[in-house]
Design brief:
The chain is of the alpha+beta class. The protein is built from two helices and six strands, in the order E-E-E-H-E-H-E-E. Helix 1 packs parallel to helix 2.
Length: 135
């Protein structure tokens, strides 16, 4: 495994992610922001943030698998949520939990969450991009 996740002493413990990842692999994998499209390009979970988060993470899992990687190789995630407010956190965590269960992973690499005004099309509520490191 090319990634070691760390929660340094002196920083708060956050269940959803670790503050630091240490990458020791030799290849960087950059995954474009994934939205809630299924394989046919149809939006999954229109109006449902949890369902869209789940689909985004499933799509990242698919992209990782294609290049011989997994969530264990992810060094950093960036999550963009339309009209973000803290009240949306339970839905985001629900979608993440469902995706993790479906994929059989614990997705806890360092992550940044950004509120945005809009994404590519009005029905997309969330977009997730990933950077992974593999040997």
């Amino acid at each position: 495994m090319a990634i070691t996740l760390v929660n340094p002493n002196g920083l708060p413990h956050i269940d959803a992610y670790r503050h630091v990842s240490i990458a020791t692999g030799s290849k960087l994998v950059f995954i474009a922001g994934q939205v809630a499209w299924d394989v046919d390009g149809v939006t999954v979970g229109e109006g449902d943030l949890a369902a869209q988060v789940e689909q985004c993470y499933v799509n990242i899992g698919t992209a990782l698998s294609e290049v011989g990687a997994s969530f264990d190789d992810v060094a950093k995630l960036t999550v963009y949520v339309v009209d973000w407010t803290p009240e949306k956190m339970p839905l985001l965590m629900e979608g993440l939990g469902r995706a993790a269960a479906k994929l059989g992973v614990t997705a806890t690499p360092p992550a940044s969450l950004l509120g945005v005004a809009a994404l590519d099309v009005p029905e997309h509520l969330v977009e997730v991009e990933a950077t992974a490191v593999i040997d």
